[in-house]
Amino acid sequence: MPHRGFRPSSSEQASAYAVAASELLEVLWGRGQEFAAPGTVSPSQLRALLVIERQEGTNLRALGEALGSSAPSVSRLCDRMEAMGLLLRAPSPTSRREVELRLSLRGRALLEEYRALRAAELNAVLERMAPADLAALTDGLAAFHAAASERLSPQRDADASPLHGDVADSA
User: Fold this and answer.
1) Is the pTM of this model over 0.85?
2) Range with the largest mean pLDDT of 5-14, 41-50, 143-152
3) φ and ψ at 118, to 5 degrees?
4) Please, what is the average pLDDT of the chain?
5) Where are the beta strands (DSSP E) in 30-78?
6) Where does the pLDDT of residue 33 fall: very low under 50, low under 70, confident under 90, or very high at 90 and above?
7) Using CA atoms, how far apart are residues 64 and 109, in angstroms rounded to an integer?
């Protein structure tokens, strides 16, 4: 991994370090997930819950596009999450053929539990960093968040706070 004062010479180098860091985050988050309540959700269910949280009232088609999944797969995924009490389906007020998806209270509580577990694991690592390195990481992550949000949602307000309501919060 990079040493103090390291400056990536290319986006490819920065990408390689980001991939390596994301793999470590997966391991850390997996460790935190071990402490989650029994009956936790699959990674695909978690991604769906995060998209629904961000796009409250979304429909199956939009959820499928966000997840890169086919309509039948998304429908079955939502069937399972509804049976688990994690999401609610309601008829759309604008179209009788569409169904709106919303998180249930249980779904919201589950996301908050995952966030808390992940934050605890991440904080254990961040506490090991020097203050200057932590500040540089914060600046870099803020810039990354803005660029990724723009790529995923071009209509999103670029000045919106990165701290909540975004798939990047926990995914």
Assistant:
1) no
2) 41-50
3) -65, -40
4) 81
5) none
6) low
7) 23
d(CA 40, CA 64): 22
Phi/psi at 69 (nearest 5 deg)? Answer: -120, 160
Identity at 63, one-letter amino acid code: L
Question: Hey, what long-range contacts does 61-67 have (CB within 8 A, 24 or more apart)?
Answer: 61/98, 63/101, 66/167
Compute CA 73 distance to the chain's CA centroid, rounded to the nearest angstrom.
20
What mean pLDDT do residues 23-32 have?
76
Assigned token pair, 17: 């370090």
Residues facing residue 103 across a β-bridge: 87
| DSSP 3-state of 58 | strand
Task: State the number of CA atoms in the 13 A half-sphere of 50 facing the CB.
Answer: 19
Between CA 31 and CA 123 the distance in angstroms is 13
Token pair in block for residue 114: 């995952």
Task: Assess contact for 27 and 152: CB atoms under 8 A.
Answer: no
What pLDDT, on the 0 to 100 scale, is given for residue 148? 84
Q: What does the pLDDT look like over 54-96, one tens digit per residue? A: 888 889 999 999 888 898 999 999 999 999 999 999 987 887 7
Q: Phi, psi at residue 90, to the nearest 5°?
A: -145, 150
85 within 8 A of 71, measured Cβ to Cβ: no
pLDDT of residue 167: 47
